[in-house]
Prior knowledge:
The structure holds two protein chains of two kinds.
Chain A: E1 5-7, E2 10-13, E3 19-24, E4 31-37, E5 44-50, E6 53-56, E7 65-68, E8 75-79, E9 88-95, E10 104-105, E11 109-113
Parallel strand pairs in A: 2-11
Antiparallel strand pairs in A: 1-3, 3-8, 4-5, 4-9, 5-6, 7-8, 9-10, 9-11
Chain B: E1 3-5, E2 10-14, E3 19-21, E4 24-26, E5 32-38, E6 44-50, E7 56-58, E8 64-68, E9 73-78, E10 87-94, E11 103-104, E12 108-113
Parallel strand pairs in B: 2-12
Antiparallel strand pairs in B: 1-4, 3-9, 5-6, 5-10, 7-8, 8-9, 10-11, 10-12
Amino acid sequence: EAGVAQSPRYKIIEKRQSVAFWCNPISGHATLYWYQQILGQGPKLLIQFQNNGVVDDSQLPKDRFSAERLKGVDSTLKIQPAKLEDSAVYLCASTGTGSWETQYFGPGTRLLVL
Amino acid sequence: AQSVTQLDSQVPVFEEAPVELRCNYSSSVSVYLFWYVQYPNQGLQLLLKYLSGSTLVESINGFEAEFNKSQTSFHLRKPSVHISDTAEYFCAVTNNNAGNMLTFGGGTRLMVKP
């Protein structure tokens, strides 16, 4: 079974530029999460999807961050415009129906904003 | 609201020595507790979880954690560590009211020395 896929693995941009991250969850997993992990800290949930609907986005900075999961499968997280403090690893995770308690994480996208 | 505190950011230990990684949580309702491990250059993996029942839970690689409701703790232990256990360990909590969304602690870096 293939794991959670993320791309790109690394991204360097200048502040005020835009960037997008892509995630493909494990096949059949209805729930998808995006986390932000700043260096030296634990992951912080940004948004949770159930199929193509948003369950919770209360910690997503909506003035600059957006996310979508249009067909209920893969998802895109966008930052526009980026700030220096957005430098972090962006993690995607998914869970299957009936196994909510185990989140499977992708390798993450490491973003550096200069 | 729920929160997790990992009291030690780094724990150096010699190979074959015992180790305890501390985790305390705060929640006003019943909780589910998790330990995730992140090996260098890899994504987070679930190590063990407490959902209900026995307060002592074990992983397949010799780690165990005990849920202590009175102390609001979920410390992770291993009686004899290996070099391969070197990793970052994250404690996480959720509850039914949180929509099963995880709140992570800041992480503890376990450094096993030969």
